[in-house]
TrEMBL record:
Pfam families: RDD. Residues 23-142 form the RDD domain. GO terms for cellular component: plasma membrane. The chain crosses the membrane at residues 28-52, 64-82, 111-134. It is a multi-pass membrane protein. It comes from the Bacteria. This is RDD family protein.
Length: 157
């Protein structure tokens, strides 16, 4: 096998939305478990600091500082994952990678756009993901807004 044909075979694939959607959702569910556990553990230092500074045993309902803290942790996880290798833990498990339209690691602005546009894409009954069925490039709404794409990586041998 020549080097050229091996690289062509090992190149990421841009599958149809129907084939990619179950993988996207499985990766999202997997990441939700990982991130949920991480955020629970990360709550303990916040609670300790809150008790030490104010004497309160729990944050008030809707505490904006607590929400910002959790959002910053979630953004940090996503930022590091997408900037380092284009994959969160869930994306690695399902062989997905987030990348620029020309196949490079996402830039800082793209990570922010993709991250923050992902919330409404999910919360509006997944319409951002279903968008890929009507998009000519099969991109989700958050991918179109961030000029990025999700590719399926080949199986490891």
């Amino acid at each position: 096998m020549t080097t050229q044909s091996r690289h062509r075979h090992d190149a990421p694939e841009q599958p149809s939305p129907a084939r990619l959607l179950p993988r996207r959702l499985a990766a999202l569910a997997y990441d939700s478990l990982v991130v949920g556990g991480g955020l629970m553990i990360a709550t303990f230092p916040y609670l300790g600091l809150l008790y030490w500074t104010t004497g309160a045993e729990a944050p008030d309902v809707g505490d904006p500082l607590f929400r910002i803290y959790l959002l910053a942790l979630l953004l940090g996880y996503t930022w590091l994952s997408w900037r380092k290798g284009g994959q969160t833990i869930g994306m690695k498990a399902w062989r997905l990678r987030a990348e620029t339209l020309d196949g490079h690691i996402l830039g800082h602005r793209q990570v922010l756009l993709r991250f923050f546009s992902g919330f409404p894409a999910i919360l509006l009954f997944g319409l951002g993901y279903l968008w890929s069925f009507w998009s000519p490039q099969h991109q989700t709404l958050q991918e179109q807004l961030s000029y990025s794409r999700t590719v399926l990586l080949p199986k490891r041998r």
